[in-house]
Design brief:
By secondary structure, the chain is of the alpha/beta class.
C-alpha cells in the first residue's frame, strides 16, 4: 500500500518508519527542513524529557548528557531519516488533497515554485500546530514589533519587551530575556500561574516578580498594540506601557482551514479533530491524523514522548485485511 504522510516532524517520521517496516511504500512531504517546526524552537532550548523518551524507532540518541538540546535533536532527526532510509521530500508544501481512500491525489509546490503531484492510497496528517499561533485578535497585532515566536534573547538587550502568556514557554522566555538585559513585563490572563508550570520555573519567576525585576500584570489582557506602547486591561483599568517589542506566546493550534478543505470534522472550540481512538482514522475514510494535531489547541496533552508511538497504532490498523478500519462518527 502506498501511504503519503504530510509533515516531517517526530510524529510523521516515526509513523513513516513503522509503516515502512510493515511493508508499505511511504512518502513524506515536509514544507520546510526535516523537523521543520522544531527548527523554530528557541535556539538554546534544552528538553525537559530525557533522551530515552525522545528516541524514534529504536535508534539511540547518543549525547553525553541526559537531556538533548534543540541542536542535538535536530541532528538526531537527520540521522534517523538516513538510518531508516525514509523518503522525505523537504521544502514540498502540500496545497490540496483530492480523491478518496485507495485513490488520493496530493498536489503542492516545491522549492523554487515547482509544482508536484503524488498518488497514494492513504493520507496521514502530521503537520503539528506550531505554524498557526493563537492570535490575540487585537489592533496592532500585525506590527513588525510583534512576534508569536521566541528564538533567543540577544536581539532584545536593553529594550522594553512585553511577554504575553503564563505557561512554560512564556515564563522561560521572560526569565531568559531578563537575564540577558531586556526590560521585561509580563501579561497573563489569570491571577496565578498554572499548576502545569515546571517546578523549577515557578519560584524563579515569582521571585523576579516579587523583587520588581519583571513587572507582571495578572490577570490582564492586551487591548491594543501601538508602535511605541501597549495597552492592557488590568483589574478593570486600562494601563499603557512604553514598549519596543511584544512576544505573544499564547500557544498554537492546528490549521483548521486545511482540515475543512479535506472534510475532516473538528470541535470548533478545542479544535480537536474527530478520529477513531483505536486507529486514528478521521471521519474521512483513508485520512489519518497523528501527532499534536490530535490535541487541537490543548498543547499540554500530546508531546513527542507519546506521539512517537502513534505510528505503532497506524501500522496495526493498516495491517488489517484491506487496510481498513471502518468509518468513524
Amino acid at each position: 500500500m502506498k501511504i503519503i504522510i504530510i509533515g516531517g516532524g517526530p510524529a510523521g517520521l516515526s509513523s513513516a518508519d513503522h509503516l515502512a517496516r510493515g511493508g508499505h511504500e511511504v512518502v513524506v512531504f515536509e514544507k520546510g527542513p526535516v523537523g521543520g517546526n522544531i527548527s523554530r524552537y528557541p535556539t538554546y532550548m534544552t528538553w525537559f524529557s530525557t533522551r530515552e523518551l525522545l528516541e524514534l524507532g529504536g535508534l539511540p540518541l547518543t549525547i553525553p548528557q541526559d537531556k538533548p538540546t534543540r541542536r542535538d535533536y535536530m541532528i538526531y532527526l537527520l540521522r534517523f531519516v538516513e538510518h531508516a532510509r525514509l523518503d522525505v521530500r523537504t521544502y514540498h508544501e502540500v496545497l490540496s488533497v483530492t480523491g478518496g481512500r485507495g485513490g488520493f491525489r496530493v498536489q503542492g509546490r516545491a522549492l523554487n515554485g515547482r509544482e508536484f503531484e503524488e498518488q497514494g492510497e492513504i493520507v496521514v496528517l502530521a503537520t503539528g500546530a506550531y505554524d498557526h499561533p493563537q492570535r490575540l485578535g487585537v489592533p496592532g497585532e500585525d506590527l513588525p514589533k510583534v512576534s508569536h515566536y521566541y528564538t533567543e534573547p540577544l536581539p532584545y538587550h536593553g529594550r522594553k519587551v512585553l511577554v504575553v502568556g503564563g505557561r512554560g514557554s512564556a515564563v522561560e522566555a521572560a526569565l531568559e530575556l531578563w537575564r540577558n538585559g531586556a526590560r521585561v513585563s509580563l501579561s497573563y490572563r489569570r491571577e496565578i500561574f498554572p499548576d502545569s508550570l515546571k517546578y523549577w520555573l515557578r519560584p524563579d519567576i515569582e521571585n523576579r516578580i516579587r523583587a520588581g525585576e519583571i513587572q507582571a500584570y495578572m490577570p490582564s489582557h492586551v487591548v491594543s498594540i501601538e508602535p511605541e506602547t501597549v495597552t492592557l486591561e488590568h483589574r478593570g483599568k486600562e494601563v499603557s506601557l512604553s514598549n519596543d517589542f511584544v512576544l505573544a506566546l499564547t500557544g498554537y493550534e492546528p490549521d483548521t482551514s486545511f482540515l475543512e478543505k479535506l472534510g475532516v470534522r473538528f470541535d470548533p472550540e478545542s479544535k480537536k479533530p474527530e478520529i477513531d481512538p483505536e486507529t486514528y482514522e478521521s471521519n474521512v475514510p483513508g485520512i489519518y491524523i497523528v501527532g499534536v494535531m490530535q490535541a487541537g489547541n490543548i498543547s499540554s496533552e500530546i508531546f513527542i514522548e507519546n506521539s512517537r508511538r502513534h505510528g505503532e497504532v497506524l501500522a496495526r490498523a493498516l495491517a488489517k485485511p484491506n487496510g481498513t478500519s471502518g468509518e468513524t462518527g
